[in-house]
Amino acid sequence: MSETQSSFLKRRNLLLIAVVALGIVIPGIARRLLGEAGYNTLGMVVFVLGYAGMILLVWYGWIRPLDISGPSH
Predict the structure, then answer these.
(1) Which of 4, 35, 55, 57 could crosslink 43 through cysteines, CB 3.0-4.6 Å?
(2) How many CA within 13 A on the CB side of residue 6?
(3) In sequence order, what are the residues at sequence separation of 6 or more whose Cβ sits closer than 8 angstroms to the Cβ of residue 42?
(4) CA-to-CA distance for 42 and 35, rounded, in angstroms?
(5) Using an 8 Å Cβ cutoff, are 43 and 32 in contact?
(6) Which of the four pLDDT bands, split at 50, 70 and 90, describes residue 4?
């Protein structure tokens, strides 16, 4: 394995990929199954809550801790 690949596949990056994938896939599958069962509105709510939860988790765990301030003069 090269240095670039091993540095990319660290635990933190894999966790981020898993959170994003599961935050889209699981609510999407639930939305589809609920929609096919006749519960379109409930499926939409489940998808929106799952997707929003994933966004909040990514923000809280990975984006919020970043120091993105500019240089101080």
Answers:
(1) 35
(2) 3
(3) 34
(4) 8
(5) yes
(6) low
Residue 1 has pLDDT above 60, yes or no: no
| Other beta carbons within 10 Å of 58 | 15
- CA gyration radius for the chain? 17
**Residue 30 neighbours by CB distance under 10 Å:** 16
Q: Cβ(33)–Cβ(43) under 8 Å?
A: yes
- Identity (one letter) of the amino acid at 1? M
Query: Whole-model pTM above 0.85?
Result: no
AA letter at 67:
D
Which residues neighbour 30 within 8 Å (Cβ) at sequence distance 6 or greater?
43, 46, 47, 50
Take residue 25 and report the two structure tokens written for it.
Answer: 């896939």
